[in-house]
Amino acid sequence: MLERIRAQLPDLSAAERKVAELALAQPYTVMQAAVADIAANAGVSQPTVIRFCRSMGCAGLPDFKLKLAGSLVTGVPYVHSSVRPEDPTSEVAAKVFDNTVTALIKCRNEVNPAAVEQAVDLLSHARRIEFYGLGNSGIIAADAQHKFFRFGIPTVAYADSHIQTMAASVLSAGDVMVAISNSGRTVELLGAVEVALNAGASVVAITSSLSPLARMATVTLAADTREDTETFSPMISRIVHLVLIDVLAVGVALRQGPALIAQLEKSKQSLRGKRLRVQEQEEK
User: What angle do CA 81, 240, 65 make, to 5 degrees?
Assistant: First the structure.
């Protein structure tokens, strides 16, 4: 819940943001306080507190407190979140690994099985699949295209906003766009998604929950990670997105069944002439 509040903070109204900041600064106090006390401490009205809870996807304050309590009690601790200049290399390595493993476990626990099922179903029956991502997400889109084209489905990846918009305009029913974005608020990508939806295509989003992209997509695979992407290039979210792509790829492969094996073997056969044999390698 704390990660969700941080991710949603820029989209909240000024009044709701006060409640959010209070919850982030004093989560244990908010968890035990009455609505009147929360409103007084945040300097807002009681209805604003309720609106904030609903903005976080909760039915009301009791539901919000329950989810907040679960986050505080059973949530995965980010004890190694800050790498300091004085840290030795061994500790830096441990922190980077620990943060990534923690984020993967968090995503595994929070991923919606129904959303995964729906996304796999759309991709399995797609006439054409297009992966869209800008900047760092463009690299993930290229990796996804590298996996999916071997399934015999026409597949392409676009990392240029102008091409994305043009390509989205010629999509139609039966086509699937996979939009990848850590923030889910990139204007150019959102524009391409809108064009694709208007053209009749389906959109699978891999992004943070409650983001504009998540709300627009046909189906969303939420990936909420805690990292400072305003200053640094996304690292943890990139790994989480790659794993979600792998989940979709494995799901589609299983849907295609034994017929896919021959196709994958044919693809591997085409590469055999490009690799040294073991005996040749030993001789060299």
Answer: 65
The ranges of the chain with pLDDT < 50 are: 74-81, 231
> CA-to-CA distance for 159 and 134, rounded, in angstroms?
5
Residue partners of 209: CB distance under 8 A and separation at least 6: 4, 7, 57, 220, 222, 224
Tens of pLDDT, residue by residue over 36-79, are 999 999 999 999 999 999 999 898 999 999 888 876 654 434 43
Written as one letter, the residue type at 178 is: V
Indicate the SS3 state at residue 178. Answer: strand
- pLDDT recorded at residue 161: 96
- Over the chain, what is the mean pLDDT? 86
Burial class (CB in 10 A: 0-12, 13-18, 19+), 214: buried
